[in-house]
Amino acid sequence: MHDPRALAVEHLVDLRRYENGVRGEARRILDAAFRDIKHTLATRYADLTPYQRTRLEAMAANFAKTLGKAYRTTAKVTDLAGLVRVESAYTTKFLGAALARAGTDVALTALSAAKLKAISQFPVAFGTTMGQWWEKQGADMAFQVKRTVQMGLLQGQTTQQIVQRVTEGPERIAMRNAEAVVRTSITGVAAQANMETLAAQDPEVTDTYMYVATLDDRTSDICMALDGQIFPYKDGPQPPQHINCRSSITPVVNWEKMGVKVPAEVQDAFRAASGGPVKYRDYQAWLKDQPAATQNRILGPSRAELFRQDKVSLRDLVTRDGRSLTLAQLEKKAA
Predict the structure, then answer these.
(1) Is the Cβ–Cβ distance between 255 and 102 less than 8 Å?
(2) Can you state the angle between helices 327-334 and 81-101, rounded to 10 degrees?
(3) How many Å apart are CA 83 and CA 196, to the nearest integer?
């Protein structure tokens, strides 16, 4: 029988590793596009004779094709439709594990394929869908590259100086924005899938949810303020509340109405959703208090040892360890 708290923490780590993989793939595609552009600048326009300067300004407009293709490819590899299915399945598994641990057997409702598809098209990336955002970003970056080249020419810069300006300007912005939109979109898709899955359940089991922030030194003021607050499904704030939001939601189960006595490990899994003191403020605090075997399973033996020695935080381990999960691997673990 699954321990719901361990299930929640392990899934959080897996989701961040999936995010690592998606961000890495987006970066690789965009990096290749910018390398192609800079290679063209450095090899075809090395001397910048008057004739070459004229051709270079015309060529700057054509760089839009390279970036447009790259962003269309990025849109395909960052399609989060599969993640919706995984998150909905995980939410059902998590709630079912908690109910089973509490000794109650409740039939849970699965979302239809049509509903899952609708969630995947939810505008989570700054008010747009992922596809719309990548399309707009491609156009914006094409404009920025062209403008950077033109400004370099007007200022009489060498080709190498223009290449450096592209690296420090449009390329850096493109990478930063890509990482932000992937992280924000994954948070939004996961929260929306969780919300819809939980709202579809019998309201006697759960009819409200708790906003759960990642409580560390990077948590925003708005998420800290919302953390622990309870709202009716579809009638309250949900992540993402801002760019790079890492918050989530968790169901508030009506244990008392169901006449169920809640085991301690189940109560911990819901961040004291039925009231009273919160024993564990966040996932890191919970993981610190677990046996070495549990820590090893979630983080891996060597990284778990660093975690036990307080040499790295859970966030550092997940975002910097270089490990990633594919959608298929994430789906297998969430099943």
Answers:
(1) yes
(2) 20
(3) 14
Residue extents of the structural domains in the chain: 4-334
76 residue type, one letter: K
pLDDT band at 71 (very low <50, low <70, confident <90, very high): very high
For position 37, what pLDDT does the model report? 92
Task: Give yes or no for a contact between 111 and 196, defined as CB atoms under 8 angstroms apart.
Answer: yes
Distance of CA 314 to the CA centre of its chain: 16
Amino acid at the residue 226: L
State the alpha helices, DSSP H only, in the chain: 4-44, 50-77, 81-101, 113-120, 130-154, 159-166, 172-199, 221-226, 255-258, 264-269, 283-288, 292-299, 301-308, 314-320, 327-334
Q: How far apart are CA 295 and CA 274, in angstroms?
A: 27
pLDDT band at 307 (very low <50, low <70, confident <90, very high): confident
Question: pLDDT higher for 29 or 220?
Answer: 29
pLDDT in tens, 143-168: 999 999 889 888 888 889 999 999 99
164 exposed, middle or buried (CB, 10 Å; 0-12, 13-18, 19+)?
middle
Find, among 101, 109, 112, 84, the residue nearest to 204 by Cα.
109
* 325 φ, ψ (degrees, to nearest 5): -120, 140
Look at the pTM and tell me if it is higher than 0.70: yes
- How far, in whole angstroms, is CA 261 from its chain's centroid? 35
